[in-house]
Amino acid sequence: MQYDPIKRKLGAVFNRTPAFRKLFYRILDLLLLRSWHIRKELRQIEKEKTTPLSVLDAGSGFGQYDYYMARRHKDWHIKGVDVKPEQIADCNTFFDKIGLKNARFAEADLSAFDEKETYDLVLCVDVMEHIEEDERVLKNFCHAIKEGGMLLISTPSDQGGSDVHRHDHEEGGEHSFIDEHVRDGYGIREIADKMKRAGFSKTEVYYQYGPAGKLGWKLSMKFPIIILNTSYLFFIILPFYYLLTFPFVLILNYFDVKGNHTTGTGLIAKGWKRG
After folding, report:
1. pLDDT single digits (tens) 221-274
2. Which of 41, 104, 142, 148 is deepest in the core (most CB within 10 A)?
3. Nearest Cα residue to 269 out of 127, 163, 109, 171
4. How far apart are the two ends of the chain, measured CA to CA in Å?
């Protein structure tokens, strides 16, 4: 299933005015469960860190997390990087228009990223599942983080995180729901071990997208993507679909972010670099 073409279509619609773009960010924050978990972690970091932070958003995409951080913390210095030059140009243009000068964007390949002890926080949301050379990228993140700094990752788990099940790998089985993924997901021990080999002295990994969150994801993302891959004409009925499902998605997201899960289709992975 192709996700990027749909993202480009949505971006074209919501980029017409800065007000539309802000509305788009707000919709993403409410619909996407990963955003609930990331904002929860960022609020915890805000409580622990009282001084201005230097942040790298590794795989910044539409720039929604950069907007969230830059608007809340005018003294933070935020750099968003992505491999897609059109998204970098788009984000720089938008942030200039709204006068947020503490976030800038640049094109970068994370497997070749080479900055030393520059950032207090590296944020990486829904990126690692797209990267073959994941251990190299984790080492690059560790080199880029200052002593005492932190890496925060959101990524699918191996418990069906790319909507792949055991029988899917058998001959004739289905592929990952999102074609752009190079792996189906990480195990908790797997990603923790890779982070430690990369140089992080402490790690913490937990499941997101438990039963409630998984159902919310199907309602908010999977079913609409399937419909839109059938025909873009369904963009016309999409607002009516969300009008019906939106309240249920909010409730499901709330219960997921408040709960502790013994399993789940997503992971939050945190790593700290100690001197």
Report:
1. 888 888 877 777 777 888 899 999 999 999 999 999 999 999 999 999 999 998
2. 142
3. 127
4. 43
Amino acid occupying residue 192: A
Q: How many CA atoms lie within 13 A of 211 on its CB side?
A: 1
The answer to whether the CB of 36 falls within 8 A of the CB of 103 is no
Domain ranges of the chain: 4-272
Taking each helix axis from N to C end, the angle separating 238-258 and 18-31, rounded to the nearest 10 degrees, works out to 50
The answer to whether 82 and 88 have CB atoms below 8 angstroms apart is: yes
Q: Which CATH class is domain 4-272?
A: alpha beta
**3-state class percentages of the chain: helix first, strand second, coil last, to nearest 5:** 50, 20, 30
DSSP 200-260: -SEEEEEEE--HHHHHHHIIIIIHHHHHHHH-GGGGGTHHHHHHHHHHHHHHHHHHHHHS-
Which residues are within 8 A (CB) of 84 and not within 5 positions of it... i.e. 6 or more apart?
A: 107
Q: Is the distance from CB of 110 to CB of 60 less than 8 angstroms? A: no
